[in-house]
Task: inverse folding
């Protein structure tokens, strides 16, 4: 058979397993990634998997002096079709020689888009939840996250001054903008095939371009112009997709006031990071929101929560974000029907509300949530 990532096809056989790299990394990553693996292996009539355990993270750095060993990069590039990444305990202060392995992996594997669906599920755990079905697509390789910073002494005052370079390119903006319009069409097609998916969105597909070009006229100006040109230069292909713009500050305001008005949102790296984490509050918790780091030939699922060192090892970490990230991985590897089974099983457990971890107001353990989802499968 053939697997597809964003319309590009790479060959597999019906008998060959999907080879997936597992990078638990730090903290609760060591608990939620095995949970996601267990669900993948338990899919009824699902694809066969071969899992490879790989190293990365701050804990690994403290042991070895490197956060991302070359062996992990080489294995992912040469052997794997996808990966699941757990969580990383990046320190808030500078540690000599350390840099985030997840940022490095995105660059090494050219995973240029971070894809985060934020969808409400009726549940006793979220009694005041708004109804929304939003997809946030974040450019994953540029902006301030190129990590080009320096510190100098101001000769006039004798005090420290820090600078950070920001990069926005037409190349990166165009390809993530193209993904946004393509996924708007894909979501609309799914809604038409499954009327239940129209419960929160009954309009034309829409892409919202987030920027701050009224202040950052050169960098955000290039971003805005490039993403707009994706539709303007391909009007026949994207004619059915509405396009709008939002300044990032008003985007945050509107997202919390009327999140149901957004379909696909596309943003530069920093803005996308902030609004996608904020959007998790609309559906209850970071513990339920998945993401996928997506390129043209590789995809890596990643729950959006952190390493949660305060609860690591206690067996109460919420595995739902990791399990949904595994479903996203399947979806982008060309197995949407099996991804749908995972989504439905997770949604059924949330809707039931009887088996929830403490972050959702419950008393269940990680293993009990996994078992409940297994039963729904």
Result:
């Amino acid at each position: 058979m053939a697997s597809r990532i964003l319309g590009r096809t790479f060959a597999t056989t019906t008998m060959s397993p999907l080879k997936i790299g597992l990078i638990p990394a730090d903290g609760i990553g060591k608990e939620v990634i095995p949970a996601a693996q267990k669900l993948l292996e338990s899919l009824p009539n699902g694809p066969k998997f071969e899992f490879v355990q790989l190293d990365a993270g701050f804990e690994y750095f403290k042991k070895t002096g490197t956060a991302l060993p070359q062996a992990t990069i080489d294995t992912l590039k040469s052997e794997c079709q996808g990966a699941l990444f757990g969580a990383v305990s990046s320190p808030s202060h500078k540690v000599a020689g350390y840099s985030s392995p997840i940022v490095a992996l995105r660059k090494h594997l050219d995973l240029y888009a971070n894809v985060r669906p934020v969808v409400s599920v009726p549940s006793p755990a979220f009694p005041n939840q708004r109804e929304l079905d939003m997809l946030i697509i974040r450019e994953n390789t540029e902006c301030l996250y190129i990590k080009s910073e320096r510190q100098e002494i101001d000769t006039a005052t004798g005090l420290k001054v820090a600078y950070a370079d920001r990069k926005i390119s037409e190349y990166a903006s165009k390809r993530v903008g193209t993904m946004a319009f393509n996924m708007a069409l894909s979501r609309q097609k799914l809604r038409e095939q499954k009327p239940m998916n129209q419960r929160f969105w009954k309009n034309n597909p829409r892409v919202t371009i987030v920027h701050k070009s009224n202040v950052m006229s050169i960098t955000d100006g290039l971003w805005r112009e490039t993403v707009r040109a994706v539709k303007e230069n391909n009007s026949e292909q994207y004619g059915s997709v509405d396009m709008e713009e939002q300044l990032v500050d008003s985007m945050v305001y509107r997202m919390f006031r009327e999140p149901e008005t957004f379909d696909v949102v596309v943003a530069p790296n920093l803005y996308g990071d902030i609004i996608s984490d904020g959007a998790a509050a609309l559906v209850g918790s970071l513990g339920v929101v998945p993401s996928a780091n997506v390129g043209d030939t590789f995809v890596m699922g990643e729950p959006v929560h952190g390493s949660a060192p305060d609860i690591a090892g206690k067996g109460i970490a919420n595995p739902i974000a990791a399990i949904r990230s595994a479903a996203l991985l399947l979806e982008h590897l060309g197995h949407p029907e099996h991804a749908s089974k995972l989504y439905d099983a997770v949604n059924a457990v949330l809707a039931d509300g009887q088996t929830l971890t403490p972050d959702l107001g419950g008393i269940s353990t990680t293993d009990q949530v996994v078992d409940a989802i297994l039963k729904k499968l």
Notes: Residues 1-14 have pLDDT under 50 and may be disordered.
